[in-house]
């Protein structure tokens, strides 16, 4: 059938559809340095940051550019792994396609969360850079309130992605609701395992960061 | 003088090119001065070129738009001279006057060659040209300010541009911002739409071209679950651009976005029009990925199409998508410029909603699949 004709490069396109969102999703976990690592542990689930820090110790180099590549890749490996695990759950829910196709589906729908991770890590870096010039109230606000609103926004986009991609790839309505439930469960687990800085964490973290930056 | 289509394009185009040269010389050389009137010559020139089908039959009206830069120049000149009395300001003021008043004179003394078009412009396309022109002027201003003053106003622009157009809006409006907000797209739309000479590289290898658009991809009704979601070219361009930005830490480098943009403009001389965006701009690939589930979509109602082929790719779409091959789904590489919708002479064939006949057809196909 003409509409189902797939080109010779289709397999490459399919591979990149997994690699790029995986890279985008995970790279934020790897980019912490010794000054910001505690802040990243508070902002994201601590075990993911610890895992990325461990992976970074496997290959170290003095070349600044290469090291930047290594840190991004260390995070990306974790990103791929998380997507692969989530795809297993999605595969059970969707039931109508191969695992690799479910993996692509999961990867593409996770883009809003990948964007969320990227923006949060960038915001954290900016926060540290402005540490000396801002008041405690402003720093607390930008570390706690701003990310909270942004998480809510991207959570909504994640739901749109799940629904629309499901609809456009032929997932029947009842299963689409199940897919949405998996998405909500995933976000709940992500939040429960440590996404977002709490007020308690910030009170401990702020003096530590100020001391680290003073040296 | 009779203002033919080609003359109209040339008058505006050469005035714009002169304005760009003055802008670049003022900002990027040691002159470090910019007359605000130049920004408004961009406004007049780009608006007239983008809205060319409308103004072609209304040349007197078009002429009046060229007065605006001259007025801005006259108002701002005394302020600039008082603040910094330099010869540069006087020269730039004179250049603004020449650049804006010459096209004014040509157009006001000329007579229109064409009758007003029977088919009105779509309101959405008119809105797009206004937005495009405004955003271009904003970009030109913040970039000039950044380079002259050494501050990073341009980073704020690109920062907002990234957050809204890459991270947030594609989830609702798809790749619409490639067609509406990108300053590079404004330049390409204005300069290259009528520049139809044969480019040295008309196509990439067939295997890549085949995968550039979504005829092989998933289509509602007939779903191939293993088909790729995205065009290969959009994914391909992500790697070199994104990696170089990340690995060489180019995010905060001042020349990077400017070089990237003018690089794309230069490449358009060697490749068909906006195909370079699909091949080389990693932001467009990012948007296409994020816009997978966008809510605002274009529908091609195949069941009511009269097959007149006026919307055929090369004539209507800057991205060379043949919408008739897309069954009823908007492809990931569509930037919602609505050129195909405007080109179509029939109502309801290309629209925002599926026609009832189309709904029935898709439903039947879905059942068969």
Give a description of the structure.
The complex is a heterodimer of chains A (215) and B (369). In chain A, 80% of the residues lie in helices and 0% in strands. Chain A is mainly α and 215 residues long. Chain A starts with 9 loop residues before the first helix and ends with a helix. By secondary structure, chain B is mainly alpha-helical. Chain B has helices at 5-28, 36-50, 52-55, 59-65, 67-83, 87-109, 123-149, 153-168, 170-173, 176-180, 183-192, 206-210, 232-247, 255-267, 275-280, 282-290, 313-316, 339-343, 356-368; strands at 2-3, 111-112, 299-300, 350-351. The longest helix of chain B has 27 residues, at 123-149. Classes of the chains: A mainly alpha (215), B mainly alpha (369). At the A-B interface, helix 1, helix 4, helix 5, helix 6 and helix 7 of A face helix 8, helix 12 and helix 13 of B.
What can be said about this structure in brief?
Helix content of chain A is 80%, strand content 0%. Chain A has 215 residues and is an all-alpha fold.
């Amino acid at each position: 059938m003409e509409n189902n004709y797939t080109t010779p490069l289709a397999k490459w396109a399919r591979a990149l559809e997994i690699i790029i969102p995986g890279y985008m999703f995970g790279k934020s976990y790897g980019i912490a340095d010794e000054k910001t690592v505690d802040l990243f542990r508070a902002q994201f689930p601590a075990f993911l940051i610890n895992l990325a820090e461990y992976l970074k110790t496997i290959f170290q180099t003095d070349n600044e550019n290469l090291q930047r590549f290594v840190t991004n890749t260390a995070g990306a490996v974790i990103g791929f792994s998380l997507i692969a695990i989530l795809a297993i759950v999605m595969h059970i829910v969707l039931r109508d396609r191969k695992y690799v196709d479910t993996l692509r589906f999961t990867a593409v729908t996770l883009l809003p969360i990948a964007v969320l991770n990227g923006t949060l890590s960038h915001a954290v870096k900016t926060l540290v850079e402005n540490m000396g010039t801002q008041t405690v109230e402003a720093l607390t606000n930008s570390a706690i309130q701003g990310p909270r609103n942004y998480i809510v926004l991207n959570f909504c986009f994640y739901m749109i992605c799940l629904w629309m991609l499901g609809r456009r790839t032929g997932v029947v309505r009842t299963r689409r609701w199940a897919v949405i439930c998996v998405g909500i469960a995933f976000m709940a687990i992500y939040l429960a395992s440590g996404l977002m800085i709490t007020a308690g964490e910030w009170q401990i973290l702020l003096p530590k960061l100020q001391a680290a930056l003073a040296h | 003088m009779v203002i033919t289509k080609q003359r109209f394009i040339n008058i505006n185009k050469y005035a714009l090119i002169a304005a760009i040269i003055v802008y670049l010389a003022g900002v990027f050389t040691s002159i470090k001065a910019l007359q605000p009137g130049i920004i408004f010559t961009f406004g007049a020139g780009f608006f007239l070129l983008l809205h060319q089908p409308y103004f072609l039959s209304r040349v007197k009206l078009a002429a009046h738009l060229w007065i605006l830069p001259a007025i801005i120049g006259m108002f701002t000149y005394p302020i600039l001279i008082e603040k910094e009395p330099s010869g540069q300001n006087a020269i730039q003021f004179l250049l603004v006057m020449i650049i804006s008043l010459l096209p004014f004179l040509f157009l006001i003394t000329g007579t229109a060659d064409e009758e007003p078009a029977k088919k009105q412009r779509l309101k959405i396309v008119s809105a797009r040209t206004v937005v495009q022109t405004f955003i271009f002027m904003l970009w030109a201003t913040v970039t000039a300010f950044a380079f002259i003053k050494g501050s990073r106003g341009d980073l704020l622009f690109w920062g907002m541009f990234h957050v809204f157009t890459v991270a947030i809006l594609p989830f609702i409006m798809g790749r619409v911002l490639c067609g509406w907000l990108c300053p590079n797209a404004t330049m390409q739309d204005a300069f290259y739409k009528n520049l139809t000479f044969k480019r040295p590289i008309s196509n990439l290898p067939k295997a890549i071209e085949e995968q550039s658009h979504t005829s092989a991809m998933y289509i509602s009704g007939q779903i191939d679950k293993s088909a790729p979601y995205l065009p290969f070219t959009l994914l391909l361009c992500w790697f070199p651009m994104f990696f170089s930005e990340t690995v060489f830490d180019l995010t905060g480098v001042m020349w990077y976005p400017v070089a990237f943009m003018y690089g794309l403009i230069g490449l358009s001389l060697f490749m068909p029009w906006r195909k370079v965006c699909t091949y080389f701009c990693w932001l467009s690939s990012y948007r296409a990925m994020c816009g997978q589930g966008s809510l605002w979509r274009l529908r091609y109602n195949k069941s009511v199409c009269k097959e007149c082929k006026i919307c055929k790719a090369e004539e209507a779409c800057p991205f060379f998508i043949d919408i008739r091959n897309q069954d009823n789904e908007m492809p990931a590489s569509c930037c919602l410029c609505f050129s195909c919708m405007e080109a179509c002479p029939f109502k309801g064939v290309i629209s925002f909603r599926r026609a009832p006949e189309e709904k029935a057809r898709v439903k039947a196909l879905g059942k068969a699949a």
